[in-house]
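If it is no trouble, can you show me the amino acids of a protein and the tokens describing how it folds?
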Amino acid sequence: MTRVLLVTSSILADQGQSTQLARHFERLARQRDDIEITHRDVVADDLPHLGLDELSSWQVADAERSEAQRELATRSDERLAELEAHDVLVLAVPLYNLGIPSQLKAWFDRILRAGKSFRYTENGPVGLLEGKRAIVLGARGGQYAGSALDTQTPHLRHMLGLIGINEVETVFAEGLSMGDEHKEAALTTAHAEIEALIARL
């Protein structure tokens, strides 16, 4: 059984193009008996920005945490446990102002955790979640892939690599705001690439 954690991050919910890519992935994946999917919508989760009190709660041993610290630490503990329990991470990501949604960054801030998902060594950080793979489903109004303006893809790869997820595949539907013909062609290509990805899971 392949366990897939599907993370969506569009503020437009089901109307978002990245969410539509995620739904296409999910529909096809659920046709297979050997794939199990968990869906997490980080916009609906509405995690706050990471603050000092929450960060400090991670440094306190479980048995010594106050009730408030336990509640704060749970935000990270539960999301890390969820990620650890899955084999494949699928991120459905819109492009907002050349970056990832702040809601998705808030999620990453809870899973990029020293001593839990990576550790520091003399040779630099080492990821602790090896053996997993990731798929990025990106939706963009313009065309950015491969250009200097695509700061989003390297950011995602670096964050995933930090925790040991170095096998990252990408599917982009680009130019979605550049006319109906361009949009239809981009979505058709992206759907075909998603189907090929699922066949390899």
